[in-house]
Each structure stands twice: as structure tokens, then as C-alpha cells.
Amino acid sequence: MKTIEWETNNKMRFESGFKTFDRQTNCIYTGNVIGARTQISFCVRAHNTLKNPAGESVGPGAMQEYDLDQFGRCNTPCRVPQHIRDAIYREGQDRGLILYCFRHLGYRDGRRIIVVDGWVLTDHEYNHVKTWYGLRGRQRFQEKSVAAVDEAAKYVCNNPPSIRDMTLREFVGLGLYDRVAGRVA
Length: 185
Description:
Layout: E1 6-8, E2 11-12, H1 19-24, E3 39-44, H2 62-73, H3 82-91, E4 97-108, E5 111-123, E6 128-133, E7 135-136, E8 140-141, H4 143-156, H5 168-173, E9 177-178, E10 183-184
Antiparallel strand pairs: 1-2, 3-4, 4-5, 5-6, 7-8, 9-10
């Protein structure tokens, strides 16, 4: 993982080449994060966790759903898309994971909006599991968003892949390309 260098007491040096994202980023941390300007992340418990923190029994997947729903409850909500939830259900049957959402504030029609640049999934040892990049019109990646997510991933996981270094097979393997539909997932 990349080590944080601080420009000031409350702003890290972040250089992805995406000036808006870089300027808005105050910090990128591992684990549960809700106070950073360009990141929201939560630990997601295993599907087979059958007790809540109070020790009460719950059904399979209940705690995992609760953790994923936290993204929609924080001060700047980012709902977890269904295809990412599905991947977490598959990958997180017996192990806890950490889901990171990287986003920035942008403008559309004169209104301020949250633009999701991408998502990174790791296990609790910060090993990379999957990456998804945000899409902009006509199902295309915005190169600047890809650069921001790739750079942010270096701070939260071990050996994150870069979309620039992938073959089509690896791209499909990450769940970024839907081979049946012939388009980006």
C-alpha cells in the first residue's frame, strides 16, 4: 500500500491527474470512512454472520445487508448498485470485506451532484478483490475517473490492478465487461 504524504494537517498529497478529484481529496483511509470528501467506505460482514453486535440471532445475510445499507444512510449517500451487491454476496459468504466508494462533487444543470468515480472491494487484510469504474454517457469510462480510482486504490489495497494494464480476459474477470450483452457491466 502507498503511504500518505501530508501537504497540511488535514490534506494529503493526492495526484491522479484528475484535477477536480485531486483538489477535493483531503484523505484516503482504510476501513470505515465517512468524513473524507471523496471516499465513503464500510466493513461488510460475512453473509454467514448469524449474530448482531448485541449477541442476538439474525438470519443469514442480515448483517451484510445492514452494512451495505450504511452507504445510503451517511451524510452524502452513495447507494450500492445491484451488480456490486451481487459480487459481495458471492465473495463474502464466509469472509468479511471492505467496500470503498470513491466520488467527487460535480455540477449538472447548475446543480451540485455527487459523481461516483468507482468502487474498490478488498478483504480485511486489504488484498484486492474487485474494482468497478463509474460510467459516463453511452456506457464509456471517463479516463479521469479511472485514473482517480486507480490512484486511490493504491492507498487502500495491496497490488490493485489498473484498467490500463488489463487484457480483455482480465477486464471480463473483474466483472467490468458483460460478455453476453457485449457491453460494460
